[in-house]
């Protein structure tokens, strides 16, 4: 097989396609041979297996929502494409490629207003204590409106240039909108019997000043609050994967992970499957929603999210990825992303709240997380 040129794959991406770039490979698919949409993720996974068995192009790509049981029922949505092409990773090949220019928005509206988010965090802290939760993840949105059409293509292009690591994606949604983003976080990958998850929790912003930047990384490594937030997550991932695995390893101390905009605590969990019939999609559905984007215990946290956030998350804080006929695949947590409509965009950013969380620091953390998308759009970070 002639290796595909990754730059061409990126240039070929157009609204409606699927694109996922990682440090190891790039995937671009186009066309729709079959589309499967279901609010039952385990059922969806079985339907995808059946469809893949007879498919000409034996891969399925798509998205899982944050909460398929939410009012309005956002379904999981997978497509068996007409064409699928893999290439090597975009970096370093794309280094030096020119950035694309985007129109400036005519309006930027935080949802809710920053003061309301501060209030929601304070209420979340109180609810954790009153209801006995260990953690909840609260998000906010930022709406950008434009005079003319804004396509996902230039945003994806700039995100790929900006993010040498992680999972940079564009996925078509059932609404015809596009989810575009650059997530640092691997929910699950499966290669043969080998599974990997790289959950993230605990955050500090990067800084342009090298001294402050190094201090922020160090502060995160020694923050008790962030280690608690992280331990809740790792425990849940290990517990969920354990029944599927005959061997499972998770280091007891997390790593310091960096993206161009954030520092995080991350733990690489690896395992060997008992049963190779369990696909990457099935495992992703079992793990999702992790405490990285929901909380612990899951159901109470999901309820608190619905009470305190004034919007539906849709496909933000869900999962994006692919699975093939062998059951291999990779699924990233769909964060650091935006939903792109014709003339508007909704960005999302959230953070884990534990009993020691400070509202102001949590608001600032979400502002820092918006920067992944804002930078790709040629905009400065928002404050507040
Ligand atoms: C929820 C988000 O990020 C998640 C929350 C984190 C945290 O609370 O420290 C860290 C990484 C992500 O798992 C987001 O970016 O929107």
Number of strands: 22
Query: What multimeric state do the chains show?
Result: single chain
Instruction: Tell me roughly what share of residues is in helical segments.
Output: 25-40%
What fold name stands as the CATH topology?
Anthranilate synthase
Under CATH, the homologous superfamily reads Anthranilate synthase
Q: Which regions contain 5 or more consecutive residues with pLDDT less than 50? A: none
CATH architectural designation: 4-Layer Sandwich
Helix tally equals 9
Class by helix and strand content? alpha+beta
Number of domains: 1
Organism: Prauserella shujinwangii
Region (Disordered): 194-213
GO biological process, one term: salicylic acid biosynthetic process
Family: Belongs to the isochorismate synthase family.
Describe the structure using short key phrases.
384 residues; alpha+beta; Anthranilate synthase; 10-stranded antiparallel beta sheet; 9-stranded antiparallel beta sheet; globular; binds the ligand C=C(O[C@@H]1C=C(C(=O)O)C=C[C@H]1O)C(=O)O
SSE order and pairing:
Layout: H1 6-12, E1 18-21, E2 26-30, E3 34-38, H2 41-53, E4 59-64, E5 76-80, E6 83-87, E7 107-111, H3 114-131, E8 135-145, H4 152-162, E9 167-172, E10 178-183, E11 186-191, E12 194-198, E13 200-205, H5 210-221, H6 224-241, E14 245-249, E15 255-258, E16 262-266, E17 269-273, H7 280-287, E18 295-296, H8 298-308, E19 319-324, E20 329-333, E21 337-340, E22 344-353, H9 359-376
Antiparallel strand pairs: 1-2, 1-9, 2-6, 3-5, 4-5, 4-19, 7-8, 8-18, 8-22, 9-10, 10-21, 11-12, 11-20, 12-17, 13-16, 14-17, 15-16, 19-20, 21-22
Helix pairs in contact: 2-7, 3-9, 4-9
The site of ligand ISJ has 18 residues, from strand 8, strand 13 and strand 22.
């Amino acid at each position: 097989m002639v290796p595909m040129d990754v730059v061409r794959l990126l240039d070929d991406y157009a609204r409606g396609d699927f694109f996922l770039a990682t440090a190891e490979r790039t995937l671009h698919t186009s066309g729709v041979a079959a589309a499967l949409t279901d609010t039952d993720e385990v059922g969806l996974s079985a339907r995808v297996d059946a469809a893949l068995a007879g498919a000409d192009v034996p891969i399925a790509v798509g998205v899982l929502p944050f909460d398929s049981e939410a009012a309005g029922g956002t379904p999981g949505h997978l497509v068996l494409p007409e064409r699928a092409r893999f290439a090597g990773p975009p970096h370093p090949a794309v280094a030096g490629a020119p950035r694309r220019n985007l129109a400036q928005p005519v309006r930027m509206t935080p949802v809710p207003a920053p003061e309301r988010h501060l209030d929601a965090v304070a209420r979340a802290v109180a609810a954790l204590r009153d209801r006995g939760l260990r953690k909840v993840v609260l998000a906010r949105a930022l709406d950008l409106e434009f005079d003319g059409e804004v396509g996902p293509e230039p945003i994806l292009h700039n995100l790929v240039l900006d993010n040498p690591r992680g999972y940079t994606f564009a996925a078509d949604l059932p609404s015809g909108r596009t989810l575009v983003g650059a997530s640092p976080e691997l929910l699950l990958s499966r290669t043969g019997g080998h599974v990997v998850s790289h959950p993230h929790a605990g955050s500090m912003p990067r800084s342009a000043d090298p001294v402050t930047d190094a201090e922020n990384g160090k502060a995160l490594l020694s923050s008790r609050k962030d280690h608690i937030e992280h331990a809740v997550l790792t425990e849940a991932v290990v517990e969920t994967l354990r029944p599927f695995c005959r061997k499972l390893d998770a280091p007891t101390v997390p790593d310091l992970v960096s993206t161009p905009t954030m520092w995080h605590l991350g733990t690489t969990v690896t395992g060997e499957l008992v049963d190779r019939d369990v696909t990457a999609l099935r495992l992703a559905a079992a793990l999702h929603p992790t405490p990285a984007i929901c909380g612990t215990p899951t159901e109470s946290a999901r309820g608190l999210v619905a009470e305190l956030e004034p919007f539906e998350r849709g496909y933000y804080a869900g999962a994006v990825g692919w699975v093939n006929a062998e059951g291999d695949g990779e699924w990233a947590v769909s964060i650091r992303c935006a939903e792109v409509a014709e003339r508007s965009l909704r960005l999302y950013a959230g953070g884990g709240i534990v009993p020691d969380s400070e509202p102001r620091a949590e608001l600032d953390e979400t502002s820092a997380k918006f920067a992944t998308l804002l930078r790709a759009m040629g905009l400065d970070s928002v404050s507040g």
